[in-house]
Amino acid sequence: MKVLFVEDDHSIAMGLEYSLKQEGYEVHTCHTVAEAMGVLAEERFDLCLLDVTLPDGNGYEICKQVKQREDTAVIFLTACDDEGNVVMGLDMGADDYITKPFRIRELLSRMKSVLRRYRKIDHAEQVFRIRDIVVHPLSAKVYKGEKELALTAMEYRLLLTLVQAEGRVLSRNQLLEGLWDIGGDYVNDNTLTVYIKRLREKLGGENGEAELIKTVRGIGYRLGE
Fold this sequence. Notes:
By secondary structure, the protein is of the alpha/beta class. Helices cover 40% and strands 23% of the residues.
């Protein structure tokens, strides 16, 4: 699934691009209207995430170009939910808008909802299973056996990052990047240690069963059988 992401704030762009790639999206990031127009002349996309205010114009110009070519999904990212700006974007054919700051999970949910309207993603949910733990990404729910686990947003994000790595070892830096949140929540190395400890307790082994989150000394962590 190809996404054109246009955002002039390089730190936000880098973090969000990483998160989208973690979710399996192919992301092309641009920082200006001119750059985006050049890319659109060469490539086709399934979805465009467009910041409204850009150094050399605005996202409305890009949206107009996109919609003239084909009926591609468009979501506006805006720092202001002023009704006039919202209506203008929707009148141009945009499918949704989301106000900054926002949560990654909220954005992912909006993207999937929009893409379903275009029949570009399967309605079937990809479910992750390891031992008796089942993770449902679409509903952001985790079950241990028949019991739903009460995870905080960060604990859930940490678990999802580990699950999606499919048993590969992730360094602490990779996990910290996976927990990066555009809403502004800051996670440092010490906090990560606390989240891992709490998540281990909630996932827990039974009858002496080994911990699900394995420590790989000097490297990082992985989810193991």
